[in-house]
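On clarity, I found the account of how folds are encoded harder to follow than it need be. Since the whole study asks how a given chain folds, the encoding of that fold should be made plain. For illustration, here is how one protein appears when written out as sequence plus structure tokens:

:::
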Amino acid sequence: KYGSTGKPHHLDDLLSSLKLGQFHWRMLALVGGGYFAVCSEMMLFIFLSTPIRKEWDLDTMHFPWLPFCSGITGIIGGYAAGTISDRCGRLLPFLFGIVFIAIFGLLSAFAPSFPLFIASRCMVTVGTGAFEAVGFVLLLEFLPRHQRGAILVVVTLCGALGAVLAGGFAWLILPRFGWRWFVGACAAPAILLLGYQPFAFFESPRFLFTIGKKSKALKVLKAMGRINKCEIPDLDNIICPVSDKPKGRLMQLFTGELKIRTLVFSCIWFLQAAGYWGVTAYLPEYMAKLGAEFYFNVFSVFIGEIPGLFLAMILIERYMLGRVRTLRFFSAFTAIALLLFSFIPEHAFKSVLIILCYFSMVPIYSILNAFTPELYPTDVRSTAMAWMNIVIEIPGLITPFVGATLVSCDIPWVYPLTWGCLFVVQCVFTFAIKTETAG
């Protein structure tokens, strides 16, 4: 219960005084379920290069046009959703994102040609881009400040489980039933989430206060108290200033004190996406080239992400390492694992090292997803995440072509070494971060 004092108190103080309850778990299920669906769709294409090339008799350099084109539409979806979210609210962009993923994810399983398959997958990435710009922001704006980091890591854990699901479906469905059943199965989480959304469909009270819709914000807070079975008094004394700044403008991120912050985090996000997709995009083919049973091996690799995320959940809070030092730790660990993977010849050690690589590489996303929106004010928070979504889609336009070239190279260490060097540079950039938000 938030004590009734009759004195003005800030919205963030009120939200931080509330214990986590059923309302928070509903919102976590909504956003976590969304990221589960997003990641199961995002990981899908790495298993499709061989069956799609066989289906439509494509050469090696034709398939990369799928991630290239879908990367462009992901940029469009993320930017549109982020700017609309900061002007009109978080909910509608979130809803449209999940609808696009569900409908076009299922339709892509019936594509009669490669161009139509690309077109349907492009519409899916409009939805995934929208979620990445809005999803984490929506949840963050309901959370107590002391639990934000750990709970946002849980959302990334849900995404890792979505990747595990895609890996499991690839192992179980692809060899037996073909790629169309596999693609349809990966759309199932988004379809199921559409049925759950009405039970956790609340606009951010923080956003509503900043645009002057106090009565609607209070209505959400009352619903929060009712669902959590707690009293929230002094609602009329809440302070959350109305912002008269232009909302949802990209150039706001590159002015004043936000300028350096945006540039540093843009570099870190870019290197993360380039390194992650560089390693992941052709990992099944690369492992097969080393003689591994690649569907099962990649499934095992995705399982390896989960303990790393649990470790990040512990380390990210103020009483442990905090955001910045945890980011440095996982970035350095990933670089070391990939560099060792490049030059150790024994196959068994390579399998262990690639699992250790994912143990540390995926939690970097969870740290960045928690850390980045905390650094920006409410009126540009979704725009900032939309910008970072644009940044991380850019490597996706290039890495499929680079990866196809590297994986066909006769020198096996070139592929992991190239991407390992990116994480070395990323670790260097983390020392330019001057702000800690833990706690």
User: Anything to note?
Assistant: The chain has 20 helices and two strands. Residues 347-374 form the longest helix (28 residues). The first strand starts at residue 9 and ends at 10.
